[in-house]
Design goal:
It is a single chain. The protein has 2 domains: 244 residues, ATPase, nucleotide binding domain (Nucleotidyltransferase, domain 5), CATH 3.30.420; 202 residues, Nucleotidyltransferase, domain 5 (2-Layer Sandwich), CATH 3.30.420.40. Helices cover 36% and strands 23% of the residues. The strands form 9 sheets. It has a 7-stranded mixed beta sheet, with helices on both faces. The termini are far apart.
Length: 495
């Protein structure tokens, strides 16, 4: 049997999927990533544990697929961004992998809002050159500069800086290369040129030679080495293609461009994706390089207000109630949640102060209000990306795509169809498509994506629900404006 392997280096889970030539998912594995946290600020994973996660994922996926090493004809990945490590001249890791959620470079006290590398992001030519306007103290650059200042003995030995996906590529192929899609989120890539931005590196006084070569997404970086084949239970000599940012690869796996040019992902965070023919950087968004056969660029916007809000409420306030029961109870709640409004990222407020309402509410109300808040956030991201033009349809991915209720809320609020695909893990499917292209199954990833895409269901806007949510959304925006001015009082009760 001929098959390919797609690896998803996610934030909460590493996943691996084995796919047939026809795009059938033969085996899937999910391994939870448990970061090593220190004082609730540092968040990292040792390189040894990272390798164990990848081995465990691949082994489990192969077992479920009943495929052996000789059956796998290509490998690729999707990846989180801004997670990195430092290595010495012998390519021996000097540090664990600093995850993007690590907060060590965020200053406290009087220096809040000031962080290492901020001057790079404030340059007038930053957005135009890099194509991104999504930056902050948790990125790679601020943490890299933090290491230089606070661990000079490590910095002196540093010969390489690798994104987590660069490190995966190095382990599999022995090459110092990565993908330009993940690299673009660093804020150090000249996107139009597809190479490192030397003026940016001079700004932070770091050499670009420390970083892996950024290749166009989907490029074959090399063959799996004999050493890697032995460690990861694969056959040596098969092609390894670099992937891209997880949202980009997931959009490919979800069939972006087949039924819609727009893809949303409701996971820990919420993201909205579309392809672009022209280079057009936009405030509040990020751009990156497209795949061969696709438009030259993609545009991405995301927000921390995602499914994490529902998970937080469930774990902290009704831990003994199964999540499925909570979602079912939310179906009985009327649109607008009886006047209960969840502010964006309600989980970041003390207790239930991220919810606004006048009355007593059962858990179903809090779940529905959280779903409505995330849907409203998605509507805001979409407006930011395409201004006032609403697409006819969007492909829904992530954990939120499994909920019919949530899809109906989004469809009613935004006013377009929401389509889901049969593959439960589009990021692994997209990585599988890149691996299949590298194996020679198609001329480009987009052609293979079209042949693999299968619609699971389509949820269209309900006209009566849309009318209700049109009024609700106007009031929701007024609440947010009042909240910014400090005029909202917290008045919710829970029973």
């Amino acid at each position: 049997m001929e098959a390919v392997l797609g690896i998803d280096l996610g934030t909460s889970y590493f996943k691996a999927g084995v796919f047939s030539r026809k795009g059938d998912l033969l085996g899937l594995a999910r391994v939870p990533v448990v970061p090593e946290s220190i004082d609730w600020i540092r968040c990292e994973v040792s390189t040894l544990q990272f390798r164990k996660y990848v081995v465990e994922c691949i082994s489990a996926a192969l077992r479920e697929s009943k495929c052996g090493p000789n059956d796998i004809k290509g490998v690729s990945y999707s990846s989180q961004a801004n997670s990195f490590l430092l290595l010495d001249k012998n390519s021996t890791p000097l540090t664990p992998i600093f995850l993007w959620t690590d907060r060590r470079s965020i200053p406290t006290g009087e220096r809040v809002g000031d962080y290492p590398g901020k001057e790079l992001f404030l340059r007038k030519d930053f957005l135009l050159t890099t194509g991104i306007d999504i930056t902050g103290p948790q990125g790679c650059v601020p943490k890299l500069l933090w290491v230089r200042k606070n661990s000079p003995e490590i910095w002196e030995k540093t010969a390489s800086v690798m994104n987590v996906s660069d490190y995966l590529t190095f382990l599999f192929t022995g090459t110092f290369s990565g993908d330009a899609g993940t690299a673009s989120l660093l804020g150090l890539l000249d996107l139009k040129r597809g190479d490192w931005w030397e003026d940016g590196f001079e700004q932070i006084e770091v050499s670009s030679s420390l970083f892996s070569t950024p290749l166009p997404p989907g490029t074959v970086a090399g063959d799996v080495t004999p050493y890697a084949a032995a460690e990861f239970h694969l056959k040596p000599g098969i092609p390894f293609a670099v992937g891209s940012l997880d949202h980009h690869v997931a959009a490919l796996g979800a069939g972006a461009g087949v039924v819609s040019d727009f893809v949303e992902s409701t996971g820990t965070v919420i993201a909205c994706f579309t392809s672009l023919k022209d280079y057009a950087p936009l405030k509040g968004c990020a751009m990156g390089p497209g795949f061969q056969g696709q438009a030259p660029y993609y545009r991405l916007a995301f927000h921390d207000c995602g499914a994490v809000v529902l998970d937080w409420y469930s774990r902290n306030f009704v831990p003994d109630v199964p999540f499925e029961v909570l979602v079912h109870s939310a179906k009985e709640v009327p649109p607008g949640s009886g006047g209960l409004t969840a502010l964006p990222c309600a989980h970041l407020y003390p207790d239930l102060q991220g919810f606004i309402g006048k009355g007593k509410y059962t858990p179903g109300y809090y779940i529905r209000a959280s779903m409505e808040s995330v849907a409203a956030t998605l509507k805001g991201l979409l407006k930011r990306m395409v201004l006032e033009n609403t697409p006819e349809s969007m492909v829904a991915t992530g954990g939120g795509a499994k909920s019919d209720l949530w899809l109906s809320i989004k469809a009613g609020l935004i006013g377009c169809d929401f389509i889901t695909t049969l593959c439960p893990e589009p990021a692994t499917s997209g990585a599988g498509i890149l691996a299949g292209t590298a194996a020679g199954w198609a001329d480009n990833p987009v052609d293979l994506s079209h042949s693999w895409f299968r619609v699971s269901r389509r949820v269209s806007p309900d006209s009566s629900l849309s009318r209700i949510y049109t009024v609700w959304y106007d009031e929701y925006r007024r609440i947010l404006q009042r909240q910014k001015k400090g005029a909202v009082r917290w008045s919710t009760e829970r029973r």
